[in-house]
């Protein structure tokens, strides 16, 4: 097996930087929706149980957009696909702002759904960074892209704080207009992407193995479960936290800053997560992330002061980073170059479908059982995922080198 060419990794590093900047802009969209979606829902929805519906629809849009995004990028390439995705984000932000201004809960929800579809393009940035990377650089390429989310963790909440009252007659709509502007900027940034062709030169068997065969691999199953548990539980707690904070008498600013600290914790470790994976292995880093998610729920059960909520969100963010990046790196072991688009789409559909389900259930559980019930629900999925990871680690360790 030949060593990867330095030129290949030079291109991978260039693309990772471009994608990290795009992530900084596009990654701010979920922060804006999560910070304000439930609060706008409380103002616009007649049935207050539907207050978290806009956030849930964001996650549903993520799931629904994964396969169409993959098909578009397979046919037109990554760059064109990401430019189209930015246009979708622009449309979603404008529609959400108009929904607020016209006091239409339905239009606002449609806007957040479309913003979620924009997010399905952004989420594939981490895979796009590996397209031209050597095996050794892949975990670091993923981490490089995810560091863009660190900047998004500042841009998103600060957009909420600075622009939420920009339109005097429609509170909060200014933040969504800001989100639309950021999506427009991302279209400019991704135009500098120079990816490898998504599909190889047509030849016999160019499409690779059937998807059904690939997803039945034990490693893919374990990776997908670890990824969906990490992301779904993060979304589960994050969706409920801002409403729970306001419900406990804390100010909106505390909720927005809590989300900001959470997103900083989600992406900040990306500076070294790739190196940790190279040193300790994908399974161990993923398992550490799942344990931290369980710790965050334990902190949430310990009190309802600002410090408790913020500590919960910070530890949750770090746990998500280790769990999700580790699981993503595991997925890259499961496919050949010609199979990557369909396998990545299948993985993300599973992950974000579960995230949508978790987000929908979060609002109902918070309304019926309170913040304490939401936290208790974290532990069973973590245990299941950890057992699967331990089994996969033992299987791989038993295979002779």
TrEMBL record:
Highest taxon of the lineage: Bacteria
Keywords: Membrane, Transmembrane, Transmembrane helix
Annotated TM spans: 16-39, 51-73, 80-98, 104-121, 141-163, 175-193, 220-247, 259-278, 285-304, 310-331, 343-361, 373-391
Domain Major facilitator superfamily (MFS) profile residues, every copy: 219-401
Annotated GO MF terms: transmembrane transporter activity
Pfam families assigned: MFS_1
UniProt xrefs under InterPro entries: MFS (IPR011701), MFS_dom (IPR020846), MFS_trans_sf (IPR036259)
Family annotation (PANTHER family): MAJOR FACILITATOR SUPERFAMILY PROTEIN, MFS PERMEASE
Name this polypeptide is given: Predicted arabinose efflux permease, MFS family
Organism (species): Microvirga guangxiensis
